[in-house]
Write a structure and sequence with these properties.
The structure holds 3 protein chains of 3 kinds. Helices cover 37% and strands 19% of the residues of chain A. Chain A is an alpha/beta fold. In chain A, helix 3 runs antiparallel to helix 6. Chain C folds into 2 domains: 242 residues, Thiamin diphosphate (ThDP)-binding fold, Pyr/PP domains (Rossmann fold), CATH 3.40.50; 133 residues, Rossmann fold (3-Layer(aba) Sandwich), CATH 3.40.50. The termini of chain C are far apart. The chains are: A alpha/beta, B alpha/beta, C alpha/beta.
Chain lengths: 194, 335, 399
């Protein structure tokens, strides 16, 4: 089983990101579950969403406490440190960020954790017209880990959205997917996107 | 045709079975073949205004709808005295759920009938003043706002009579009730204004709103009939004296209701879509004292000390009502 | 059709396929997605021949369904927590009148203090109302149990509440094989009311019943409720045959055969618990899980049968019934009276506190080590409790 945790702020589409990932796995014939940490938060408050992916039906319904991958849609959340809690020492961290992680944060992340920084907001604003970084982060995650195929991700996007919004989101997925593949050295630990 | 004005029980235009009227103007109540939808054998008190009014309303509604009628009843006197298991006095389909939900239950019945394609069957909801204005007020407002196809009839005896005469938001100022007692000659209900249900209905823009009393059966039947010709939410507020709760002789119920109307304390009017469209003028107004002193619930206003200040206040309220609805004008057919 | 879908939507679509004629809706977290989706289906026409009433309170919601059901329409609503309590009078009324209304309860804690997260305190508080209470362990069960609910409600003239853990299930995006229209039509015939408001045949519904008859009337209502113990499994089997999968009815036993220790749960914890149980069984530990699907009427015989090999029975209560050890515990203990089983209570998951696999492992470790008391809390913060108790004690002695 693979467990993913997605962090962001209310209004950034964190729930949608987790559902797109789960939907993509479903498209591929795997079993997946996505659910948010729930609150009465309004927009702007920190929120999280969880995804479990497996080849057999997912039965657990408790929050993901030991994720194999963490996606961070809003880099300001890294300051608290909570977003990294439980991340597998050999896991993957995908952050919506231009440039590199700050040294303090990079140190807080385990040395064997694979870190990707993705300019997901910039991509989303350019292609979709709104700062919804999720699909771009998913593209990068797919490329870095192979957890789900890019075709399935695109299919999920087209099922969730329609018309030009679907096209734009699909483009965002494909762009970061390709960019991540292109810049990832074989077996490398860091894979920043340009 | 002039009719001599009289005190006491009248015959003439107010008589239910007036042989001088054309058949088409005769009441359902006077018809030997009337349904008696609320039939004999129920357990109401002698002289109960509500029992008579309910029978009149149901029979008129039954006639107006060609017998396609179901009724929903709130908890209260009417429900309790009419449905002592295993007997029932109801000859129309009848549903009693709770005290505070009759308007909502009726809304559900109406929705079900409509969706089943049985929209020819009409819904009559019935409740007392407590069930309508207090505990059921939220549901009433909801039914009004949604314009559900229900005629809601409130039988107003001005207190929670079923449970022993406790004060409701329809209890007039200064009236003695079990929860607004009179001690050492003073007491009685304290209220700045009784909840004005008909005007509240009008404020919701209810399609048809009317007031009536058990003292004028023809008028009551006409208003029920007019209401049933309309679809959507409708409200009828009927004054029904309660001999027990008001402290009046059991054979004066009907005349007492007429007396209330003659003082101006209970205006008779009709409203459509929020505006008054018809009122019944008072032919010869009477002072409120003549009405109040008949009822022991107001006895403390007269004995041991006559409370002129209070009586004046009540008189001013009647005057205001008369002015508001222009009930003092002289016209044909005034009561 | 198998879909990746949010639990609320799976339930809404299943309900729509049950062809309700009147739906009343008043919003409350976390039920909102159910009623919102139904309003969309009513708008698009997927749900047709259905009156959708937006009412002014939960009390009005269930009250309007009392009217609709008595007038002969299949009726539905959904609520949670405060809303369920606000309609409490109508909940008892509907059962007493024998109206086959179906209601989804998205389980949520009851205030004060106000809390919007999952526990089962709301439906547990209504356990005496005379409704059949079904608890879904996952969203597939949540969907399927609504078909069962309408079918059994109308067969017995008893209302049914289908309970599903709020947020945990309602907002979980999972695989659900949402029943197709033709599947539902095959198992759910049109509503044939036992009593009907009909001018052609007038009846009085809701009479006042005095001391001379009330006992018998209530006995018969209780009798009808208890018939669910036979009717539910039969209906679930038939519906399961059409849907092509087992549909739960009374209890779901997971590895109870030969298990010396069994944990009894209701709702979504069963899934997490089953993972824990499987991990321990793989290590050679004799432990099992028993999920209660039907809580009212309580399936005492089925529970006793499932727990026949158990020496230790641990009941997980996802509610705190004030002043008593645990409503589920009481029912289980009574069902096991006379057996050798020792029954313990663990209160867990109140107000949305997650019941984690880790904590369940810890619990079973303690149980194995003989360190589990008669009644404990899974994860009570004793530091906070001790501090607060000291503080209030100090206030009491202060001059």
């Amino acid at each position: 089983m693979l467990q993913v945790r997605i962090h962001g702020r209310g209004g950034q589409g964190v729930v949608t990101t987790s559902e797109l990932l789960a939907l993509a796995c479903f498209v591929e014939g795997r079993h997946a579950q996505a659910f948010p940490s729930f609150g009465s938060e309004r927009t702007g408050a920190p929120v999280a969403s969880f995804v479990r992916i497996d080849d057999r039906p997912v039965r657990s319904h408790d929050p993901v406490s030991a994720p194999d991958a963490v996606l961070v849609q809003d880099p300001t959340l890294l300051r608290g440190g909570d977003v990294l809690a439980g991340l597998s020492p050999s896991g993957v961290l995908v952050v919506n960020l231009r440039g590199e992680l700050s040294p303090e944060v990079r140190t807080a992340v385990g040395p064997d954790v694979r870190v990707l920084t993705v300019e997901a907001s910039e991509t989303a604003l350019r292609l979709i017209g709104r700062d919804v970084p999720g699909p771009a982060l998913l593209g990068a995650l797919a490329a870095a880990t192979g957890v789900v195929g890019v075709d399935a991700l695109v299919a999920a996007v087209r099922e969730r959205f329609t018309g030009r919004v679907a096209d734009a989101n699909a483009d965002a997925v494909l762009e970061t997917y390709s960019a991540t593949l292109a810049s990832a050295p074989e077996g490398g630990r860091h894979a920043p996107t340009g | 045709m002039t009719v001599p004005a009289q005190h006491g029980p009248q015959v003439g235009t107010l008589a239910v079975g007036n042989r001088l009227l054309p058949l088409s103007l005769r009441t359902v109540a006077a018809d030997a073949d009337r349904l008696s939808g609320l039939t004999g054998g129920h357990r109401a008190c002698r002289g109960c205004g509500e029992a008579l009014a309910a029978r009149v309303v149901v029979d008129a509604a039954h006639r107006a709808t060609g017998g396609r009628l179901v009724t929903v009843n709130a908890t209260g006197c009417l429900e309790v005295f009419s449905s002592p298991y295993p007997e029932s006095a109801w000859r129309v389909p009848w549903l009693h759920s709770l005290f505070g939900n009759a308007p909502a239950v009726a809304s559900g019945v109406a929705a079900a009938l409509a969706v089943q394609g049985r929209g020819d069957v009409r819904v009559l909801a019935q409740g007392g003043d407590g069930g309508t204005l207090d505990i059921g007020f939220g549901c009433l407002s909801g039914m009004f706002e949604r314009d559900d196809d229900v005629l809601y009839v409130c039988y107003d005896n001005q207190a929670y009579m079923n449970t022993g005469v406790q004060r409701s938001s329809a209890t007039p100022a200064d009236a003695r009730t079990a929860t607004t007692p009179v001690v050492d000659g003073t007491g009685g209900n304290v209220t700045r204004h009784v909840k004005d249900a008909p005007r509240i209905a009008m404020a919701h823009g209810v399609r048809y709103v009317a007031t009536a009393t058990v003292g004028d059966v023809r008028d009551l039947e006409e208003k029920v009939t007019r209401a049933m010709a309309v679809r959507g939410a409708r409200y009828l507020h009927v004054l029904v004296p309660c001999p027990l709760g008001w402290g009046t002789p059991t054979d004066e119920t009907i005349e007492l209701a007429r007396h209330a109307v003659r003082t101006g304390l209970f205006p008779l009017f009709e409203a459509e879509d929020g505006d008054v469209v018809a009122t019944t003028p008072i032919r010869r107004r009477e002072p409120v004292t003549s009405y109040l002193e008949r009822q022991s619930r107001f006895a403390h206003l007269f004995h041991p000390v006559r409370q002129d200040e209070v009586l004046d206040r009540i008189q001013r309220e009647a005057d205001r009502t008369v002015a508001r609805y222009r009930l003092d004008r002289q016209e044909e057919g005034a009561s | 059709m198998l879909r990746q879908v949010e639990g609320s939507l799976a339930v809404a679509e299943t309900v729509a396929r049950c062809r309700p004629q009147v739906i009343s809706a008043y919003p409350i977290s976390p039920q909102t997605h159910v009623v919102e989706h139904l309003s969309r289906l009513a708008r698009t026409g997927e749900l047709d021949h259905c009156a959708y009433l937006t009412v002014e309170s939960e009390f009005a919601a269930l009250s309007s369904l009392v009217g609709a059901s008595a007038a002969g329409s299949r009726s539905y609503t959904a609520t949670s927590s405060q809303g369920l309590l606000f309609m409490a009078e109508a909940v008892f009324n509907a059962a007493g009148l024998g109206l086959p209304i179906v209601m989804t309860v998205a389980n949520r804690a009851v205030g004060a203090p106000i809390n919007i997260w999952n526990d089962q305190g709301d439906s547990i508080a209504m356990r005496d109302a005379g409704w059949i209470q079904l608890y879904a362990a996952d969203n597939q069960a949540a969907a399927d149990l609504h078909v069962v609910a309408f079918r059994v409600a109308e067969e017995l003239s008893v209302p049914v509440m289908v309970c599903m853990d709020g947020f945990v299930l309602t907002h979980a995006f999972e695989e659900v094989d949402v029943p197709d229209q033709h599947q539902v039509d095959a198992v759910l015939p049109p509503f044939r009311p036992r009593q009907l408001l009909d001018p052609a045949a007038p009846v009085s519904i809701g009479a006042m019943v005095g001391p001379e008859a009330y006992t018998e009337v209530r006995y018969l209502a209780d009798h009808a409720l208890r018939r669910a113990l036979e009717v539910l499994p039969a209906a679930a089997d038939e519906i399961g045959a059409v849907l092509g999968r087992p549909v739960p009815s009374l209890v779901q036993a997971h590895g109870c055969r030969g298990a010396g220790t069994v944990v009894v749960v209701m709702g979504s914890v069963l899934g997490t618990l089953s993972e824990v149980v499987d991990e321990r069984v793989a290590r050679g530990v004799r432990v099992g899980a028993l999920g209660i699907t039907c809580f009212r009427p309580f399936p005492a015989s089925a529970v006793r049968a499932a727990l026949c090999d158990a020496d230790e029975v641990i009941v997980l209560e996802r509610s705190l019934a004030a002043g008593e050890d645990g409503p589920l515990t009481a029912d289980v203990a009574r069902a096991l009276a006379g057996t050798r089983a020792r029954v313990r209570t663990v209160v867990a998951g109140l107000g949305g506190r997650p019941v984690t696999g880790t904590a369940l492992h810890g619990l079973l470790d303690r149980a194995e080590g003989g360190r589990l008391g008669a009644r404990t809390f899974l994860d009570l913060d004793r530091t906070v409790i001790d501090r607060e108790l000291r503080r209030s004690a100090a206030q009491e002695v202060a001059p």
